[in-house]
Amino acid sequence: MNILLIEDEKSLADALAHILRKNNYSVDVAYDGMDGQYQAETMVHDIIILDRMLPGRDGIDILKNLREEGIFIPVLMLTAKDSIQNRVEGLDAGADDYLVKPFSKDELLARLRALARRHKEVVFNDEITIGEVTFSPYKSEVRIGDQVVHLTVRESQLLELFIKNRGLVLSKEQILEKVWGFESEVDVNSVEVYLSYLRKKLGNSLKLQTVRGVGYCLKEE
Q1: 11 to each of 24, 68, 108, how far by Cα in Å?
Q2: Cβ(197)–Cβ(142) below 8 Å
Q3: Which among 204, 168, 174 has a CA at the least distance from the CA of 191?
Q4: Does the first or last residue of the chain, that is N or C, have fewer Cβ atoms within 10 Å of its Cβ?
Q5: Please, is 109 exposed, middle or buried when counting C-beta atoms within 10 Å of its C-beta (0-12, 13-18, 19+)?
């Protein structure tokens, strides 16, 4: 699981990143709001840990902007502000959970596990519709108008990854990590093979574009 940690207190950020990596999370770190928003908008993450008070851009502003752009990655907001009003403001801006500093390592890890479970349940129990295509991750099938197309598990995982990150360019390495996992011995060329299978099944209903020298991107018409 890949986490984006946006925290300006460098010592705290580095300590949290160390804890998360020891618990088998992959972690990207941003030390200010501008870099944090850039990474959130352009890279693939499963959860964002977002400090509320940041230089460059406030955490609430980052969160509102992400939600307005249709980026619904689960966000755990960190704050030193413990008032009810502050919590309400963060949740209303789109935060999925709220953790007040100082907090214990065990509580942080438990909240991350809960967020991951919740997000997985939402993704796999809901149908996702884009244009004339309705994708059911739980059934591993796509409906295109009246036609039902059955996907393999790997094809379904690929399509889910692109839908969750539509509009973003994903490199072969990112796709390999997210779909096959860090420990996999599968070659990056497998990404191209499975993408070709998926493209054939989708036809012209969804466009998985090749961005030469960079990766692939799902574009909405």
Answers
A1: 20, 31, 17
A2: no
A3: 174
A4: C
A5: middle
CA 34 to CA 54: how far, in whole Å?
9
CB within 8 A of 25, min separation 6: which ones?
A: 1, 2, 3, 112
Task: Find tokens 């994708």 and name the residue.
Answer: 135
Strands (E), the chain: 2-6, 26-30, 47-51, 75-79, 97-100, 128-130, 133-136, 141-144, 147-150, 207-211, 215-219
Per the structure block, which two tokens stand in for 212? 């030469």
SS3 29: strand
Cα(59)–Cα(48) distance, integer angstroms: 11
Biggest distance spanned by C-alpha atoms of the chain:
56
pLDDT band (50, 70, 90) for residue 139: confident
Q: pLDDT tens digit string along 1-35?
A: 789 999 999 999 999 999 999 887 889 999 999 99
Go through 174-201 and write b for each residue having 16 or more CB atoms within 10 A of its CB, e for each that does not. bbbbbbbeeeeeeeeebbeebbeebbeb
pLDDT-derived band at 220 (thresholds 50, 70, 90) equals low
Match 């619904």 to its residue by tokens.
72
CA R_g for the chain: 18
Cα torsion 89, 94, 95, 101: sign: negative
Phi, psi of 185 (to 5 degrees): -95, 10
